[in-house]
Amino acid sequence: MTLFAGPSLVESYLEQIHNSCLVGGEGALADYIPELAGVDPTGFGLSLALHDGYVYSIADADIGFTIQSVSKPLTYALALTHKGFDAVDERIGVEPSGEAFNEISVDSKRRPRNPMINAGAILSASLLLEVEPDVDTAFGELVDFYSACAGRKLVLDEDVYRSEMKSGARNRAIAYMLQSFGVLHAEPEHAIDLYFRQCSVVVTTDDLAVIGGTLANGGVNPRTGRRAVSQSVVQRVLSVMTTCGMYDGAGDWVTTVGLPAKSGVGGGIMAVLPGQLGIGVYSPLLDEHGNSVRGVKACKRLSSDLGLHMFNVARESRVTVRGFYSAHELHITTDRSDSERRYLHGKHDRIRIYELQGDLTFSGTESVLRRLRSSATEFEVAILDLSRVDHVDEVSRSMFVGASQNLRGLQRSAVIVDPDGVVIKRHSHASEPARGAQFVVTTMHEALTRAEDFLLKLAVEEG
Ligand code: DON
Question: Where does the record place the STAS domain (predicted)?
């Protein structure tokens, strides 16, 4: 559709966020794994997967990188699925350690403190070996599960895997220590082998966003529509990601970003807004905690600019669009001269009404505007009826204004029915154009009048 070949409003927002995080090349590659020391440090991708499976991909969203520690919540999910909560809880805690990811850290029961540090992750991998006959079979099952979450077949990076196997003394030490404490029952070398293989699975930011989207969706992949994991396991995994996912910076992360997340030394970060969306970011330059410097910055900007903090409390409603129809169905009579009436006869299908409901936050507004954009060749005027909307957050408000301005650039118009002033605070002249081509009115009758005025004005302009 040539009319809408350019980037959408949301894509422009994401590009701005991406560009604002490009400045400064701080951080270092994870050179403790020799193979990772050679990756291009400038790669920087960003993806967002919405609950209906739509994915926004910005910049280097197609660069493949190894998943590394972002795999930890997934393997934990698989261990919970196969062994059950009680058996897993006996061997892996759920408390934040406040320590580095590779700390040799256990609690008073000699359990790894949580599944997001290496000790807990190696133990999660070992639990799969208790139910599978060998490492190959366990890895086959594991990669099938990761693939089901990503919605495509994922594969191993053999070079990174071999590199980790050669340089993994510290992780080996952790595995043998856990064996000596009596919590790791599988062969330590096998547990390490499986752990290194899981870290070496190749993903893109699109994959991380869709995996995050699967968790956001309670375990159902938003792309394939298939359940990959149970709701109760997702609840547990998101809880642990919230408290332990970003290591020693967990408190700061929850406060500023407010999204369950997991980082990896490959440069990836996966973040989840439960019920709404998944985020994937990639930039391989890391801070001292092993988190991607630009990835953290991008998550902070995404959260603050798009209002994605999980405690940004809104009355969520999956069905933001309550109704979608043409003005034919309105049965409202406007005050028109005979010639105007003749002109307008049969033209009401050029006016579309979108009835919205609930509280409008980023993801609901995004889906409305995406629908508007994809159907915009079918109308001249869109009437957005917000009579049933209680609250519109800051980002959604500017998205509506931006969308109205975009429509004007395309010789189209938007009229907003907003009796309670939820989008734009009205002044005394309620029906004056608010900004750009946008009209804010209080009744559907006024909206239809404005919409017809626009069609009549177009007719005059077109002669
Ligand atoms: O255990 C390791 O060294 C890696 N394979 C994974 C560590 C990792 O990604 C930590 N996360 N920031």
Answer: 351-463
Q: Give the DSSP H or E segment for 440.
A: strand 439-441
Going by CA atoms, what residue is nearest to atom 4 of ligand 1? 68
User: Comparing C-alpha atoms, which of 117, 72, 128, 77 is closest to residue 95?
Assistant: 117
Reported as a single tens digit per residue, the pLDDT across 320-373 is 888 889 999 988 999 999 999 999 998 999 999 999 988 888 988 998 898 888
Q: Is 292 in the pocket of ligand 1 (CB under 6 A)?
A: no
Q: Of the listed 56, 76, 247, 282, which one is catalytic?
A: 247
Catalytic, 282? Answer no
| Backbone torsions φ then ψ of 222, nearest 5 degrees | -70, -20
Nearest atom in ligand 1 to 291's CA: 12
404-425 pLDDT per residue, tens: 888 877 788 899 999 988 876 6
User: Two tokens at 318?
Assistant: 């999956």
Q: Which helix (H) or strand (E) holds 45?
A: strand 45-50
In angstroms, what is the span from residue 116 Cα to ligand 1's centroid?
Answer: 10
C-alpha closest to that of 276 among 355, 194, 212: 212
Ligand 1 atom nearest residue 171's Cα: 1
Query: 0.70 cut: is pTM over it?
Result: yes
Both tokens of 325, joined, read: 């129809």
Q: Do 356 and 416 contact (CB within 8 A), yes or no?
A: no
Q: What is the DSSP string of 50-91?
A: ETTS-EEEEESTT--EE-GGGGHHHHHHHHHHHH-HHHHHHH
Q: Is 72 a catalytic residue?
A: yes
**CA pair distance 187, 192, nearest whole angstrom:** 9
423-431 long-range contacts, Cβ below 8 Å, gap at least 24?
423/386, 423/392, 423/397, 424/397
Note if 76 is an active site residue.
no
